[in-house]
């Protein structure tokens, strides 16, 4: 089953840009197995090895066209888009397809086949991954007998806006070591960088796009770019989504400002019970969480028969 047929069968309901990103990354992933099979002899395993080889070449060509990759070139994609545009959804479907594909090949799919990471701990937890610093050994030495990346096919990095120019150099250096592919950029791995450079900058160092310190490795290595424009997170409140979109593009109006100011809570308006809080300091966050936890405990013990 082709990647496009698979997406139709599973009714992914991705928008045009999401579907494009999914197809490119999924095809790049499948191509890694074709690369492994390059030197395989089919004589002992089939009745018509010449036909199998021709079919192999045809399918590989289709996959390269879908992934928009030249032979022996790794996919280095930047998946751009504001919060709520569906970047995580694309990643979810890529992993789902990869697991099914690998299963049909009777091959192993483990936590290092597709490595899911993020440049912050909070983002890593939200996507069920690990921090990029941890998986790529930014802060530790790599043992000479470390073979944990032997089956690695694809690295996904969320919140790439938090990556500075030194980070991407370290990423390249360490991936070459982890994959034992010292002569190829990023160890020859396919990488999906996800993020939005209109969000948070690195805590320290220069951002990858800095006008004065733009990282040449980032600028010259990215060979695929897809920008998501959907407002999927705001499907139940499209007006709010459009307001945030205009603010993001520095195109906000007085009407937008007035709409936001109407949401300001003052002395005459209580905070809704289901409100989400955004605070500047850890002390405020801890106090709010402690209060909410205390109220939850009180509510539980009032209705519980455990006593």
SSE diagram, text form:
Layout (H helix, E strand, L loop, with lengths): L2 H7 L6 H21 L12 H19 L8 E5 L6 H18 L9 E5 L2 H6 L3 E2 H4 L18 E5 L6 H15 L10 E6 L20 H6 L2 E4 L10 H11 L5 H8 L20 H22 L4
Parallel strand pairs: 1-5, 1-6, 2-3, 2-4, 4-5
Structure, described:
- The structure is a single chain.
- The chain is built from eleven helices and six strands.
- It is α/β, with parallel strands linked by helices.
- The protein has two domains: 70-230, Rossmann fold (3-Layer(aba) Sandwich), CATH 3.40.50; 234-303, no CATH class.
- The protein has a six-stranded parallel beta sheet.
- The mean pLDDT is 88.
Given this structure, which CATH class of the largest domain is correct? Answer: Alpha Beta
CATH topology of the largest domain: Rossmann fold
What's the number of helices? 11
How many domains? The number is: 2
Please provide the count of β strands.
Answer: 6
Task: List the main descriptive attributes of the protein structure presented here.
307 residues; alpha/beta; Rossmann fold; 6 strands; globular
